[in-house]
Amino acid sequence: MARQPVKPGLWQRIDVIARKATPFAVTFLLVLINTVPTGLPGWSQINPVLPLIAVYHWSVHRPDLLGGTLVLVIGLIHDALNGLPLGLHALVFLAVHGIVVFKRRYLVGKSFPLQWTGFVISAFGAAALSWILGSIHAFHLIGPDPLVYQYLVTIGLYPAVAWFLIRWQHSFLPIE
């Protein structure tokens, strides 16, 4: 008589669901961190876009766990919590996600400097798209200076945030 496969228990199923939800949860946490007031004058204009780092990371390493729909939700939440035009970062994050997933084969398994270079290019495109969409929303060209500083701070923080995301991925997610 053949043995029936054992169905995973409730706690095992919850564990699997929780692990698969971690890319969204960690990205959402970075959205929340982005909204914390620092009290520094002018910081709100150059506040790094931490969720962009997570969207890029998960698009390279685990696009199966942070798909387009979740990226859209993250972008909408980011805009709503930061008082930005609703949909601005949803479009920016979706564009980055789509392009990175499309070009993913050039980044997966590559060295950290190459992945960072990919992020620098992606973040530049994201900043340019944010500037264009922001200017359209304002019905005039907005000054690019805050976006340039925001871009520089974001790419400067990439190694620290990516280190955290890589450690999290290796600790909590099964190998793809």
Explain how this protein is built.
The protein has 176 residues and is mainly α. The protein has one domain (22-32, 45-172): Arp2/3 complex 21 kDa subunit ARPC3 (Orthogonal Bundle). The protein is 72% helix and 0% strand. The protein has helices spanning 10-35, 43-46, 50-61, 68-82, 88-102, 112-138, 145-172. The longest helix is centred in the last third of the chain and has 28 residues, at 145-172. The protein is globular, with a radius of gyration of 18 Å. The two termini are 34 Å apart. 28% of the residues are buried.
Reconstruct the topology from this structure.
Elements: H1 10-35, H2 43-46, H3 50-61, H4 68-82, H5 88-102, H6 112-138, H7 145-172
Helix pairs in contact: 1-3, 1-4, 3-5, 3-7, 4-5, 5-6, 6-7
**What percentage of residues falls in helices of 4 or more residues?**
over 70%
Low-confidence stretches: none
How many runs of DSSP E, i.e. beta strands? Answer: 0
Order of helices and strands: HHHHHHH
* Structural class assignment: mainly alpha
Fold-level CATH name: Arp2/3 complex 21 kDa subunit ARPC3
Strand content: under 5%
The CATH architecture term is Orthogonal Bundle
User: How would you sum up the major sheet?
Assistant: none
Quaternary structure classification: single chain
In DSSP terms (H or I, runs of 4 or more residues), the helix count works out at: 7
Mean pLDDT: 92
First-residue to last-residue Cα separation:
34 Å
